Amino acid sequence: MSDTATHLGSGKVRELYSLDGVRLLLVASDRISTFDVVLPTEIPDKGRVLTGLSGHWFAQTAAIVPNHLLALRDDGRSTECRRLEMLPIECVVRGYLSGSGWKDYRASGAICGHVLPEGLVESQQLPEPIFTPATKAQSGHDENIDRVAAAALVGEARFDEVERLSLELYGYVSAQAAARGIILADTKLEFGIDGDGKLVLADEAFTPDSSRFWPADEYEPGGPQPSFDKQFVRDYCESLGWDKTYPGPELTDDVVMGTRARYVEAFERLTGLAFDDYLEQPEVVLA
Ligand code: Q0Z
Predict the structure, then answer these.
(1) Would the pLDDT of 34 be above 90?
(2) Element (H, E) at 251
(3) Residue of the nearest CA to atom 16 in ligand 1?
(4) Among 17, 97, 225, 239, which is most exposed with the fewest C-beta within 10 angstroms?
(5) Is the peptide bond before 117 cis (omega within 30 degrees of 0)?
(6) pLDDT of residue 1
(7) pLDDT reported for residue 3
(8) Which ligand 1 atom lies nearest to the CA of residue 85?
(9) Is 189 in the pocket of ligand 1 (CB under 6 A)?
(10) Helix, strand, or coil here: 82?
(11) Sheet strands (E) in the chain
């Protein structure tokens, strides 16, 4: 057996390695970004929370769509997964009007070709969740695209399939989150194709880094909502008058501890599992 891993690439807060011809290793660090800048201070166990949450949702949704998960490593932050041919689009589902969706709606009354009712306010729930794909930008921000542009990238049949699956996944997870007092405002999914040409859910799924989670008891449409996980960090950074360019500020111990507690709370509320149990034995519980 070989234990060597070849580094393939870095995300803002994650690392990707090749294990062999068919397996990859995704490692979630404790780095945190805010306003698109990675901060010099880490949040202890943040990577474990995100890896555990992704693993949980992969297990819970395996009956909806197969996924890339092979194993979680004992460090709790590393996922062994199947190597796939990734689709060149981000599969975004929005149930609420926020971020670039709100921007696009303000400018045109539509998002990715979905024409919406007039008079919606920021963070308002949409009449129904919508599939709003985006390109994968190599640098800078992803660009929202309509059905025609997305189908040109992946094909009509594959587009219909990822649209249907993304909406079904959002419906399942948003209902679970709502039952635990958390609004899943939107989420970004990534799919790949396996050697048999089958669609597979990949990357990370329904983590705070790929989704907007809002505390339901503080929900107030008509403006931006507090983030479940990062609000202490954002508020602290705003209080410093930092210009939101590199490098970001060091965080204080109380901001670090408060933010770690929010990540752990998100894990425990969303999964119904004790985070200490996950740390002791990282595993996924099948539905
Ligand atoms: C995920 C990424 C990261 C940098 C490629 N199962 C898969 N098969 C093939 N490719 C990927 C996956 Cl998950 C894949 N990314 C995103 C993750 C660091 C970039 F940790 N890129």
Answers:
(1) yes
(2) none
(3) 203
(4) 239
(5) no
(6) 64
(7) 79
(8) 9
(9) no
(10) strand
(11) 6-10, 14-18, 23-28, 33-34, 37-38, 69-72, 78-82, 85-86, 89-96, 110-111, 114-115, 125-131, 134-135, 182-193, 199-202, 211-215
